[in-house]
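Section 3.1: Structural characterization of target chains.
Under the original work plan, the team committed to producing a structural model for every single-chain target entering the pipeline before any wet-lab resources were allocated. The record below documents one such target. The sequence was received from the expression subgroup and is listed exactly as submitted; it comprises 122 residues.
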Amino acid sequence: MRRLFTRRGRQELRALRTLDRTLRVLDPGPRLAALDDPAIEQIAFDLQRLDHQRRSGPTRCSAVWLAAVLRAYDARLQLACRRLGVTEHLQPLDGLDREIERVRVEGQLEAAGLTLRRPDDR
């Protein structure tokens, strides 16, 4: 009985090592990261909501609030660009250069079919 257990144990150990080597080759990391991203519809909804917030409401009264909304808006723009394959350079820019890049990216995303503004905000 002891020999049978040992042989079976060695076979299982070999099978586990083979499986481990196979899993190292097939790295599921990028595929799992893509599953964590929200759907493009959710990204579009978030962009519409954030665009509305940055153009009206308490955002106009508070510089801190406006900065936070713009950061969130830019992060969603970058995510949408990755999902739709649009080139963007928002991260290294600031000030007027960033605003110009934001307008360019919005145009590219709208050309790709993404609606960035609510119908009542146009």
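The mean pLDDT is 80.
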